[in-house]
Request: fold
Amino acid sequence: MGSPAEIPCLQTLPDGSLLLRLHVQPRAAANGLAGLQGDMLKLRLTTPPVDGKANKAVVAYLAKLFHLPKSAFVIKSGQQSRSKTVVIKAADVQQIRTALAALLVIPES
Reply:
């Protein structure tokens, strides 16, 4: 099993939920992950940042990516920013970590 330092954009909180740091690029050509940007996961979305549509698209994309209900995701900070902090509740921490590591091609130790 790995430590939280393996994936810099993901942090386990004391209550067992996860904190995911994102850098969102709105109005991209296609939706998708674009790897790490520093200690943040870069997420490209076709949605424009108008009337909260990009925030809804972030939650919808993550829910589909991790096979969790949209209610499991809460944007804790960055509602008006490209840099967002998302709390993932009621999740299997190791499942999320493994899925993210596979998507980012980070070897597990």
Notes: The two ends are 7 Å apart (CA to CA).
